[in-house]
Design goal:
single chain; globular; 9-stranded mixed sheet
């Protein structure tokens, strides 16, 4: 994983998947979190970003995905569990096979990251303002994806802690 800590700040390199289906977006959470986020994971050295996303979806959901276009390059600055994070993330559109059981927008799916359980659920894109979703820019950004790749610098307020 490409992650390290220096002077009390954690750096993460993350690759994220945006799965849209019939007006819904796939999000996930873990038992330790009280918020939702897009699925993805940390890249490995010498691993192309699209392959990172394919690997993460195989590991977390046991499913293959097609990686589409790059939507956002995001510099994300936030606090999590009292610690400061600087995250560089690539957000790709991704699709599941047309016959995938994961396209059931009424179902909840269980996955895992190592030994941590993950819950995956589809949410209506037009209802994202009603849930806790990080990074916050996604509530608006997912309602109208840009037609070309955009660079986003997202800074959570200094007093906002994702696990406070």
């Amino acid at each position: 994983m490409i992650t390290y800590s220096e002077n009390g700040v954690h750096f993460n390199y993350r690759v994220v998947g945006i799965a849209l289906h019939g007006g819904y977006v796939l999000l996930h959470t873990s038992p330790k979190d009280d918020f939702w986020s897009l699925p993805g994971g940390r890249g490995e050295l010498m691993e192309p970003s699209a392959e990172t996303l394919r690997r993460e979806m195989r590991e977390e959901l046991g499913e293959s995905v097609t990686v589409e276009r790059l939507v956002w390059v995001v510099e994300n600055f936030f606090r999590y569990n009292g610690e400061r994070f600087h995250e560089l993330a690539l957000y790709y559109l991704m699709t599941f096979a047309p016959d995938s059981h994961l396209l059931d927008t009424a179902a909840e799916f269980q996955g895992h990251e190592f030994d941590m359980p993950l819950t995956f659920r589809w949410f209506p894109v037009d209802g994202l303002s009603d849930i806790t979703l990080y990074p916050i820019f996604l509530k608006e950004g997912l309602t109208a994806l840009p037609s070309a790749t955009e660079h986003v610098i997202h800074v959570n307020p200094p007093d906002a802690d994702l696990l406070a």
